[in-house]
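Researcher: Quick one. two chains, 885 residues in total.
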Amino acid sequence: MLHVHDDDLASCVGCGLCLPHCPTFRITGEERYSPRGRIEAMRQVHIGAKPVEASFVDMMDTCVQCRGCETACPSGVPFGRLMEGTRSTLAGGAVPGYQPWWRRIGYRMLSAHRAVVVGSRLLAVGQRVRLVPSRRLGLPDRLPLRERPLEPSGSDVWLYTGCVMDAWQRDVHRAALRVLRAAGVGVSLPRPVRGGGCCGALATHAGLLDVARVQAEATMRAFPGDAPILVDSAGCGAQLKDLGHLLGTPEAERFAARVVDIDEWLARHVDRLAPLARHDRIRRRVAVQDPCHLRHVQKVHLSVRTLLAPFVDLVELDDDGLCCGAGGAYAVLQPELAGDIRERKVAAVGRSGVSLVASANPGCSLHLSAAGLDVCHPVQLVDEAIHGGRA
Amino acid sequence: MTTPRTTTTAERSDGEVVDALRAALSADRVHTDDLELALYGRDASLLRGDAVAVCFPCTTAEVQSCVRIARQFGRPFTVRGSGTGLAGGAVPLGRPVLIVTTKMQQLVEVDLEDRIAWVEPGMLNLDLTRALRRHGYHFAPDPSSQQSCSVGGNVANNSGGPHCLAYGVTSAHVVALEVVLPNGDVTVLGGLDAEPAGLDLRGAFVGSEGCFGITTRVAVRLTPDPPAVLTLLADFLDPLDAVAAVSAIVAAGVVPAAIEMMDQRITQAAEAFVHAGYPTDAGAILLVEVDGLPGGVDAERAIVERVCTDHGARTVRIAVDEAERMLLWKGRKTAFGAVARIRPNYYLHDTVVPRTRLLEVLSKVYEIADRHDLIVMNVFHAGDGNLHPLLVFDAREPGVLDRVHAAGEEIVRVSLEAGGVLSGEHGIGLEKKPFMGWQFTQQDLDAQARIREAFDPEGIANPEKLLPEGSRCGDIAHLDAAHRERLLASGVWV
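Model:
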């Protein structure tokens, strides 16, 4: 038996309209790597009492959890919930060694922010002396050696800084701070709470809901009060908006209601930002890549366009917002599929004739940069347009 | 679920077939894992079967190898595209070699001078249309499953779609086919000339539901994108008024590109998904599309508007831009899937009735569903009288399937009695096979069986589909009903 609801499983009529919106089906053409096939496999196990074997685990593990199928599904099948429940069953002992101890420790360690930053620095040194095989580990080519600390500027809003993103892409946070300051908004940074450095998204996707719950509880303590919590990582934002579901408490519901994607928030205030743009430079053409957790989960991907429209010339990709294959830890855990999926995205960017890509999620931007694309966060573009240079 | 393997001989021959297939393709493109075979046991219908292996060929030569190996080992073969068929045409019966075309997706050649394109069968219908867009053309057949269904599947089922009212079904848009025949030979049927010499075997092949062989390349006709398009949404309190308006539009001399009707229940379900602003209190809505040169489009719009209003339309809304137009269509095209918001399963027939009898048949459909205590939702190609009464239910409810099938049969019967036909576009497959005898005489069936035999004398191409057993002799109905019952009893998932 899987930790899923029978009604959720029954809600798929098998029409197949999800198929072209699934990145793994798109590249393989195989039912086992499609939402419909995965649901049928869940049924075979959950209702048909088929044993959980390697093949089943492979079908579930290869899902990027982009949730493009949910947007495409006319029946409203809650695929994300089904996959989350299935993976938590696997991790909960249905498959011995499904999440080995070292991986569990890895997910837990993300909460220890100091350790993440120090660890990243060690990796950066290792890269410089060529001891760390970046490509094989799925790391960015040149991790930052040392990053200046971020400066808070008030208490109107919080900026969520996260785990790996703060170590690897602090530039994005810095740009966000500069843009918010330009808009006259005071920004607080998260309180240093023990174990509060990671939102728990990666643990949730891995099926380690117990780990994720601990991380979520600590994260909530890092943001006291009622001020909105702005998130410049689509994946973290999706997770934080869902804490009510994960923890099931009124506090978590209230916390989740305070979470706003930064593009979503800035788009509401774009009238304040637009006049600040310096018009002494040529407007740039920028292709928008929609992170799946912005488009299919938070459903606020249009905000990126509203926000960017006054500052750059937007170019839409022609691939229906298909996932890029990053998927949090997916690019590291399923490098082959992730690479094949990325090729489609790279090709779509190629067809657009634009060299600069805006992506509101650190995972996507790392994954796409590793394929040689020039990727930045939308707030970095706004920051450049206002301040004339990168933060 | 899985057919028990009874004898060791069968075991051995299973292994031999699989070994041969793996040698011909590659080990990673011949799958035999139990769980995966279960995924390929069904298509978008409710029926179920079991294959010996699932093969993913990438070339014509590989398809040919699969067919030759199946034949050599005395196995049948069944071809499958995206698996979106609603009549069970791709359900593997008789433990066949299942040949899946999803890895054959290339747009091989676009020939603008001849206005054709050669495509591989696994290419998705909408991908083809998108690839042609920059040239100003599209592929006209547009089934509701357009985004997911394959061109090969369209050929096999002679698929239709909303726009087939004005443009014709798949057969009118396929000029030539490269096929692997059941004996393993590769040949081209039809041709690029306006009038290819000889018998129109292409015409026979289109719609043959995988029983005449496997399409490996299709030459499709390119249809120019219309210079102007307008989509209208007319809403009626009484569905029967909407039906009357359909006939009146055609009688007024307009042949719109599409006329689609959705009744209240399906409108509500679709609206919950697309938020297109469908009037959910309407008894029925009509989606009417007119296309062509701007002047003509405007004139036709005026006629459609007037006729709808005359027949009691409360409002006639015109999509103001492409985004709104796409939204209006999205609701229609995803309507089948959206029914799960009401009940998790659906069952439907796609009978076609003369447009003039629509009113009468539709009333009977509602009456039949009521009598069997079932919910029916009607969404259909009203312009060509192609019904899609969706009977929605929860298969977990004991006894409900019997009611569903009984109601389905009655719907087929009233459609045929009104001078209609069994299937407009979904194909006969397994599901409608038992009803073939209701529409065709023994001589008709015998003639069809002879054509099938000419293509497939050994009867190995997608067996047990399309034509009832005994089409060549004697009474079929009884035998076949029993067979169908057995299938349903063993195969329907709950």
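Chain B touches chain A through 47 residues (CB under 8 Å).
Researcher: Thanks, that's what I needed.
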